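Hey, can you fold this one?
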Amino acid sequence: MLAEVLAEVLAEVPAEVPTEMLWEVPAEVFAVVWVPVFQQKFFCSMEALCQKVEVTMEKPIAILSPHFRTIDELFSQSDLERLSELCIVKWARDEPIPQEVFESYLETAHFVIGTYPKLNRETMEKTKNLKAILEVAGAFPTEIDYECCFERGIEVLSCAPAFRKLLAEMMVGFLISGGRGIVEEHEHFRKGSEHWLGEDEVFDFTLYHQSIGFLGFGSIAQECARLLEPFGCKLLAYDPWLPPDILATYKATPCDLDTLYQQSRALIIAASPTSENFQLVNHNAFSKMKVGTFLVLISRAHLVDFEALTDAIYAKKIRAAIDVFPQEPFPVDHRIRQAPNVILSAHRAAALYRGRQAIGTMVVDDIESMIDGQAPTAMQKASPKTVYQRIAAEKVVANPALK
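Sure. Predicted structure:
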């Protein structure tokens, strides 16, 4: 039937029409407008064209709006081609999508790929086909009505696991650099005050066979533990949410906070933010640490009282490496910028441009799985516990009185 429609209108189609929206129109419009363009460009038969139209029109729709990131940053060419083969891709631009355009696409969309999509209950109740929201910023967005998603069986997926290896690598880099005083001695050398064959007996240490503590032992800390295996470290972990068998897998010893503070030669802050752990590492915590403890802050500044941390550095109680800050960009006049014994990094642990293309691979893998009727496995699935803890934590950061 479609072939007959196409045949009837071939002679009436304008000679030149744009092709960028080729597969995004109903069959009747396609027949009138696009057939000659397609045949002229691809030299296909009417039968092949009809088959292509029928297959394409069965494709699910994916809205791709990655701003503040870019498409090239997130997707390799091969993954972008895979996505286009699986779905009709709407928007697919680096600039922000206007909310009214987003909502017009959303009515028939199956997948939303974005950084901070605004999806309240009223908006989602207009959708007919929505199967999944795939965030590409790195954490579950707060602008989504998760209760509505859970009620309707809409998956909300986070790309956070894509950063696991990059952050774990940075952790090990910090541990080696901080333990051996590489940055500190580099600065001395630039000033002409280097210590030939010297060692800082308080702060310098070898990573081999040291006690390394983890405050939080999720996927990033677990990857770090795997990288530390050749060093034979003794691993301590405080993570009340984690089953003991997972800790045992990585030969990590569970412990309470006091033990973690007192026995760790190096302490890595790797927990996700919750309303309960806001500024958990405070003056009291620093008072329990050994002199010379090396602290690595790489998850969220939410967990640390930053002024207490700065005080501990200036008091020569600890050395630190810091990749995340309570305010970003960080004030240029803050005293930690002039502090000794600290490595400062401008939220760069996952900043490798091409390294973030792992996100695109995960997105396409999970979309393909869902199209095939399988559960998504590459990205992190939202659950009531994980997302409600995050939302509560965001509120505490905005208003500490809520703690």
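The domain at 163-344 is CATH 3.40.50.720 (Rossmann fold). Let me know if you want another pass with a different chain boundary.
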